[in-house]
UniProtKB/TrEMBL annotation:
InterPro entries, sorted: RutC-like_sf, YjgF/YER057c/UK114, YjgH-like
Pfam families in alphabetical order: Ribonuc_L-PSP
Record protein name field: Endoribonuclease L-PSP
One GO CC term, this protein: cytosol
An annotated Gene Ontology molecular function: deaminase activity
Domain of life, per lineage: Bacteria
Length: 134
């Protein structure tokens, strides 16, 4: 079996190991990042929706940085929202703080009924900085 090239952000390895998944895996010049939620250091959710979205992006950026990436390297985004009809606009008011300038990555938004106590989750695929493929 091939060994996965796993990326862990600083200080959160035990949280991922406790939950039995990898925060990100490098493969074929890409970084596949697991869904990031607005969890505090102990894994509990931020109680305020907008703070939860910001924390999810901060957690995402920590994983990207651990792999030598930035949000500018992201090529595909999937977001999951509980009560999407209400929360999509609330989340998208925060996105410009993190998203950067156009051209933007692709996006798939999915409304869900449950996210393990969270209201927002973001997962991405990013280009690793040492790749030159277009």
């Amino acid at each position: 079996m091939n060994q996965r090239d796993v990326v862990f952000p600083s200080g959160r390895r035990a949280l991922y190991e406790r939950n039995h998944y990898s925060p990100a895996v490098r493969a074929n010049g890409l970084l596949f990042v697991s869904g990031q939620v607005g969890s505090r250091e102990d894994g509990s959710p931020e109680p305020v929706f907008e703070d939860q979205v910001r924390r999810a992006f901060d957690n995402l950026n920590a994983v990207l940085a651990a792999a030598g990436c930035r949000f500018d390297d992201v090529i595909d985004v999937t977001v999951f929202l509980v009560d999407a009809e209400v929360n999509f606009a609330r989340a998208w008011a925060i996105v410009p703080e993190y998203w950067g300038q156009a051209p933007y990555p692709t996006l798939t938004g999915i409304g869900v009924s449950w996210l393990y106590g969270f209201q927002f989750e973001i997962k991405v695929v990013a280009r690793l900085p040492d790749t030159t493929a277009a």
